[in-house]
Design brief:
about 475 residues; alpha+beta; four-stranded mixed β-sheet; 20 helices; about 50% helix
Length: about 475
């Protein structure tokens, strides 16, 4: 039924070939240098060939390999420019497209899940996918009531493929790590593997997306597509036109990039406060700039397959710790990090050194506005990742409690996107408005209460063909989920 490579031995062989290919190209590069070719030219060609093969293998396999490639693409801003250049365009392609499945496979899934008469639900259905990504692909269509919709179809065998990929990627973590110095790849892979079950459940995704669509229905800054229909392996949402964030990054005006950065930051911190959920997969393929009636821009948000369930909003401890760090309260910050389990060898650390380690990381919150740049992120990655750096040695003493894993991933990924945008953002303004504990000293007592992650009540999953309680705003039809 499917052309998706599903057999573990086949997928493992493809992934295992990556480091062997890297080694082969290194030998080829050495040979080119021996015969007198420029080291810079050879190195650039070597990197380009590596990037192209990386896209080819990860794109063909989809599944966990594709997901991992998309996460890598967010962090390319942290790479030195001479290394990042050849990878940037190739990895960014993973955010918007991948080799598609044939129409016959897609039709078979729709017939199995929606019934043999599935075409009666649509006035039009485009066989050519509008987007293809890690566990499914998106087709543009017209629903039977005339609405333009995005039809997200899960790849057959996606679950088995994801598990197989993450097992293999864990074995290759040491070899893949150098692509992103300063980022510990193995825990990232483990965290992603732990979340695959939720991403495969389109019912959970539909519920999370509908919650956001209802909450942001009248919002002047954010638009979320309404859910139209959901069943196993198929999710239909309204279509959302707009400028993909990847295009804003590459060709957007200063105004567009700053607007996108401000709205992305606002959504990151306001979402948990307003919905009890946090969008935890913020890569450029999941966002659009959508024109509004006044000639401005709203942020279109897509793909709610990975969300953190925070019924009380973000933990107040985060806001309290950031505020105290900015105020220079070294001992208080140190004590809080120890109590919350963020520090391992408590007796061997100096509170002032911990404060010095944290201050550059939260620099964007210090100023009224902060310009996120690739050079700033590279300097931070170098400071923390350099083997000779005292910051790296201190960083080894930090621990990430399980309840903060997705929060950390979302914030780190958002920072990567802001640096890709080169956006100037009023970060402090958003923290003051939405981050619990940042302005309220009384929140220090509540900071000790870490929220349960998986206990939030989900709204009833939408399973009918009827539109949500409120119709979508005219002209804001929904979008191509960039991460299918």
């Amino acid at each position: 039924m499917s052309d998706l490579p599903r057999k573990a031995v086949t997928r493992t062989a493809k992934l295992a070939a990556l480091p062997l290919s890297f080694a082969g190209r290194a030998t080829w590069g050495l040979g080119k240098r021996i015969v007198g070719e420029s080291a810079d030219l050879v190195s650039r060609e070597l990197q380009q060939r590596t990037a192209e093969q990386l896209f080819k293998v990860l794109g063909e396999l989809k599944g966990g390999a594709m997901k991992f490639g998309q996460v890598l693409s967010v962090f390319e801003s942290a790479l030195p420019e001479e290394i990042a250049g050849p990878y940037r365009a190739t990895l960014t392609r993973l955010q918007e497209a991948a080799p598609p499945l044939p129409p016959s496979t897609v039709h078979a899934v729709l017939a199995e899940r929606m019934g043999e008469d599935w075409r009666e639900s649509f006035l039009e259905f485009q066989d050519e996918p509008a987007a293809a990504a890690s566990i499914g692909q998106v087709h543009r269509a017209v629903w039977k009531d005339g609405r333009a919709v995005a039809v997200k179809v899960q790849y057959p065998g996606a679950g088995a493929a994801l598990l197989s990929d993450f097992n293999q990627l864990s074995r290759l973590a040491r070899l893949l790590g150098p692509l992103n110095p300063g980022i510990d790849v193995k825990p990232l892979i483990a965290e992603m593997r732990d979340r695959v079950a939720e991403e495969l459940d389109y019912g959970l995704e539909a519920a999370a997306q509908q919650t956001h669509a209802e909450e942001f229905a009248e919002d002047p800054d954010v638009v979320v597509p309404w859910v139209v229909h959901q069943c196993e392996q198929v999710l239909v949402t309204e279509w959302l036109d707009g400028v993909p964030l990847s295009e804003v990054i590459s060709d957007g005006s200063r105004e567009q990039r700053d607007r996108a950065g401000q709205l992305l930051t606002r959504f990151l911190f306001s979402g948990p406060a307003r919905t009890g959920l946090m969008h935890a997969d913020p890569h450029p393929g999941n966002f659009r700039l959508v024109p509004d009636e006044d000639g401005g821009w709203r942020l279109g948000v897509l793909d709610f397959g990975t969300v953190d369930r925070l019924p009380g909003g973000l933990p107040p401890m985060i806001g309290v710790a950031v505020r105290m760090t900015l105020d220079g309260e070294a001992e208080a910050v140190y004590q809080m990090l120890c109590e919350e389990g963020f520090l391992k060898d408590k007796d061997d650390l100096d509170a002032a050194a911990v404060l010095d380690y944290l201050l550059p990381v939260i620099e964007p919150a210090r100023e009224e506005s902060f310009e996120f740049t690739r050079s700033w992120l590279r300097s931070e990655a170098s400071r923390i990742g350099d083997l000779r750096s005292p910051a790296r040695q201190l960083g080894k003493q930090f621990n990430l409690p399980p309840s903060y894993v997705l929060i950390h991933r979302a914030m780190l990924s958002t920072t990567g996107v802001l640096c890709q945008l080169g956006a100037e953002v009023r970060m402090r303004e958003e923290l003051e408005a939405w981050l619990p504990g940042f302005l309220d000293p009384s929140a220090e007592t509540a900071a000790a209460e870490v929220p349960e992650q998986a206990t939030a009540d989900l709204p009833e999953q939408p399973t009918t063909d009827e539109p949500a309680e409120e119709p979508a705003e005219e002209g804001t039809a929904a979008a191509v989920p960039g991460e299918a």
